[in-house]
Amino acid sequence: MTRRTYLIKRVIQAIFSLWIIATILFFLFRMGLPDPTAALITEGLNAEQRAAVRAQFGLEDPLWRQYVLFLTNAVQGEFGTSFSYRAPVSEIVWERLGNTMILMLAAIVLAYGIGVPLGAWLSWRRGSRTDTVGIFVGLMFRSAPMFWTGMIAILVFGVGLSIFPTSGMRTLPYDADGFLDKIFTLDFLWHAILPVLIVALYYLGSPLLIMRNTMLEVYGEDFIEMARAKGLQERDILYKHAARNALLPVVTQLAVTIGLAAGGQVVVEVVFSWPGLGREILNAVRTSDFPLAQASFLIMAAFVITLNLLVDILYTTLDPRVSFR
Amino acid sequence: MTRKYMLAGTSMLALVGVSAPAIAQERVAPVEIFTTTESYDPIRYEGAFIIAEAWRELGLDVSVRPMEFSTLLDRFYSEQDFDATILGWSGRVDRLDPQFFLGTLDSRQAELGANNPGGYDNPDYDALYDAQGAEFDIEARRDLVHEMQDVYMGDVPVVVLFHRDEVVAYNNTQFTNMNAMAGEGLYSEWVPMEAEPVGDRTTLRIGGPQEPDNINPLASTSVWGWKWMRMYYDRLVRLSPDVEPVPWAAERVDPVDDVTIEVTLREGMTFHDGEPLTAEDIAFTFNYYMDSEYSYFNSYLAPIESVEVTGDRTVRFNLSEPSAPFATITLSQIPILPAHIWSEIDNPQDLTPEQIPTVGSGPFAFERYDRGEFMSLTTNRDHFHADEISVDGVEFQIFADAEGVFTALQTGEIDMTAWRMEPGQIPLAEGNDDLTVVSVPDFGYFHMTYNLRREPFDDRAVRRALTMAMDRERMVNVLLDGRGEVGTTVVAPVNAYWHNPFVERFEYDMDAARAELEEAGYSWDSEGHLQR
Predict the structure, then answer these.
(1) What is the predicted ipTM?
(2) What order do you get walking across the sheet with B393-398 strand by strand?
(3) Which helix (H) or strand (E) holds B484?
(4) Which of B72, B301, B348, B425 could disulfide-link to B218, CB 3.0 to 4.6 Å?
(5) Phi-psi sector, B244: left (phi>0), alpha (psi -120 to 50), beta
(6) Cα B191 versus chain centre, distance
């Protein structure tokens, strides 16, 4: 198989997976969630009024027709109108996704930026007290629930010391011309520090441990012996030869993490009142807002699938051992 | 009846049961109690288990079924597919007139989806309901309302479990003269109009986890939408903090006869865009609502047959039947829309957020709404009431949960909470000198509604016995931490004028419950199951 046909095959696979996910989402929500008119109207509508509300949102059509319409629209990037907001879903999702991604990407960059070199360093000093402490700290933040670390951070740095703001992503109200204008301010940075740190500490464990463990495997390889025999400095062996080879699993983990980041860390978004997609999804499911929930989950899935695809493609260049079978 | 006689009675019945199989009794069918999930509302969830436990003691086979909230509403209202359900009514200010809560027991509201899902059907009660609705003499109306409470209480189609106090807090270093209103708490339409700044800031900051579903006055179906919109839309009448109707955009409301009401508008009112507010706008608004598909105000608009302009500042409402609460309820709820803007809009429900007009005539003018984050209003200095208002505007910050709201209150980021505090936050707030905690009794209530179409709830004696088997005192003390009151009738005690304090009360008394059942011909089999 040539590289070209391999790529085409992978892309087709990705599209097929997305279609399956879209289908599952569509039927799952309709079977699993209560009638949205129940959530829309708290006052008890009579049957006629309910039918009118249902017709307004196209819920009276047969299921297959709703499904076809949903798919055709989704292909065009059109996800309909949110039941509860009565606004186009795509508008809500993109805005919220932007807010989530800026928080998550900052945290991921921080976690991997620190975690990878730290993991490499720990592997070098394996068995030492530093190694034990490093693993312990990584595991601790990985296992501590984020609502807990988040609340402690708010209590200490927000309420107690009054250093950082405790909620939102900007001091309200703010005017911003577009997304970049919203985030390139000191005020945003000030609001972002606590939530970014909390998420970063949580994520830190993965790159740290993966890096450390793969490094240990790499140390046993012949080419390391070779490098030593050549009389290279330990530091050069560590960062130039071993680390580069140990990076592959970290890259895979990174791609999955970024993909899942689209859904945000709901807990952090709630604790810090961050107006992100995770918080929005929670509300959408709670109010049976099918269009909003579907679109959010579908976009998350698209993220994960696309990033996996990218990793596969990246592997074909990074790792010559990958063959096109 | 003493215990001895009761025991004797029971054993006699048991003997009869054994010796004469011809009149053998059948076990009472199992019943289900529907309630909310624990995460949605732990109070109603726990309440259901307290009740189930006591009913089991009475020999009933009971299970508790917690349900996701929308599903619960659906089963209760739209399908009426339940045995007994625990739900609640919020105490919105327009419900202080007894009309609404009394209507939940009217047999003509028992169809699918309407407000009487339990299906209580009592012609005497219905007749009284009609009579009070048509009675303009307030004292005479009160007598009828009291009689209604007396009539239904003995039949117990519904049990008012308890009223939960609304506990909110504000920052006393920023604002003073913050008066809570029954059923509304601090977040009433009056607080922004009455609050006096004591610090440097003159903008009142409110914080809460709830946000409007939307701010379209022809699509919003939530209390949170209307709590916000009523500040920038005027109504003909507003209900005062003491819940008395005061003329607002109306200068006068004059009954012409039983079914005709003439409203004279205040002089010189304008909308926020500078256009004058005229009688045409009033007639347009009411007709527009009546012609639209928007059902939220339907019950308020139901008595109106037509609305006509009779002069520059006068409008006449022709009603299809006499309606005593018309001024209190209808005129105080319908927001006045500018005809020159809305008359151009054909499908108002379909407006996207950007297209929704936000021009009202109220004491505050709409400034902005950033979904999920922030809303603000500025004081309308051209409003007739503006001289009474000390704040320059109102801001509302939207938080993801109650914890975020409370943190913001502690750090001074917001001045008051829009929604009740969590039980754990109350002592913390009380211990903070900068915060004043305010507690108002609620006239909304949590209720257990029996489905009177089903066995065994179709039997009055069973309903009475099961009600006696509810330890509501314990629920208030344990579940509400004492911050509430045991319920009696659907018209709450805090609604003192309309509440009838002399109705039959159902105190917690298991012996009386057993006696009630025995008297109605029930007995218990050898395993203690209730049978008839």
Answers:
(1) 0.77
(2) B364-370, B374-379, B393-398, B203-208, B416-417, B166-171, B435-440
(3) strand B484-486
(4) B348
(5) beta
(6) 20
Is B78 close to A38, i.e. CB distance below 8 A? yes
What token pair was written down for B495?
A: 């609604």
What's the CA angle centered on B520, arms B514 and B526, to 5 degrees?
55
Write the pLDDT tens digit of every residue in B277-299: 999 999 999 999 998 877 778 77
A142 contacts A207 by C-beta, under 8 angstroms: no
Q: What pTM does this model have?
A: 0.80
**Beta-carbon contacts of residue A24 (< 8 Å; ≥ 6 apart):** none
- Please tell me the distance from the alpha carbon of residue B157 to that of residue B163, in angstroms, as a whole number: 18
Q: CB–CB of B115/B127 below 8 Å?
A: no
pLDDT score, position A39: 55
Is residue B271 within 8 A of residue B359, CB to CB? The reply is yes
Could you tell me the CA-to-CA distances from B441 to A148, A177, B164, B507 in Å, in that order?
34, 46, 7, 21
**How far from each other are the two terminal CA atoms of chain A, in whole angstroms?**
7
- Alpha carbon distance B501, B505 (integer Å): 9
Q: Return the higher-pLDDT residue of B131 and A32.
A: B131
Beta carbons of A172 and B214 less than 8 Å apart: no
Q: Which residues of B touch A41 (CB under 8 A)?
A: 221, 295-296
A263 vs B532: which has the higher pLDDT: B532
Enter the tokens of residue B275.
Answer: 């256009």
Candidates A40, A52, A280; nearest CB to B293: A52
- Angle (CA) A161-A164-A170 rounded to 5° is 155
Beta strand pairing status for B62-67 and B31-36? parallel
The distance of A262 to chain B (nearest Cα, Å) reads 18
How far does the CA of residue A265 sit from the closest CA of chain B (Å)?
A: 13
Under 8 Å between Cβ of B119 and B451 = yes
Among candidates B269, B238, B273, B239, which has minimal Cα distance to B365? B273
Q: Which chain B residues contact residue A166 at CB under 8 A?
A: 404, 407-408, 411, 413
The pLDDT-based confidence of B82 (bands split at 50, 70, 90) is very high
Determine whether the interchain pair B411/A88 forms a contact, defined as Cβ–Cβ distance below 8 Å: no
Q: Can you tell me the mean pLDDT for A223-230?
A: 81
Rounded alpha-carbon distances, angstroms, from residue B268 to A142, B250, B278, B279, B361: 65, 12, 9, 12, 11
Chain B residues whose CB is inside 8 A of the A273 CB are 398-401, 404
- Give the pLDDT mean for B260-280: 94
Domains of chain A: 3-88 (no CATH), 94-318 (1.10.3720.10)
Which is more confidently placed, A145 or B264? B264
Residue B245 has pLDDT above 80, yes or no: yes
pLDDT at B22: 44
Taking the C-alpha atoms of residue B338 and residue B361, their distance in angstroms, rounded to an integer, is 8
Looking at beta carbons, which residues of chain B come within 8 Å of A274? Answer: 400
Whole-number pLDDT of residue A35: 66
Question: In chain A, what are the helix, strand and coil shares in percent, each to the nearest 5?
Answer: 75, 0, 25
**B1 CA: distance to closest CA in chain A (Å):** 44
**Token reading at B377:** 């209003």
CB–CB contact B413 A271 (8 Å): no
B510 CA: distance to closest CA in chain A (Å): 35
User: What helix, strand, coil percent values describe chain B, rounded to 5?
Assistant: 35, 20, 45
Q: Which residues of A touch B376 (CB under 8 A)?
A: 173
| Cβ contact B204:B395 at 8 Å | yes
pLDDT (tens digit, 9 = 90+) per residue, A242-289?
777 788 888 888 888 887 787 667 888 888 888 888 888 888 887 778
- Residue B485 φ then ψ, to 5°: -145, 145
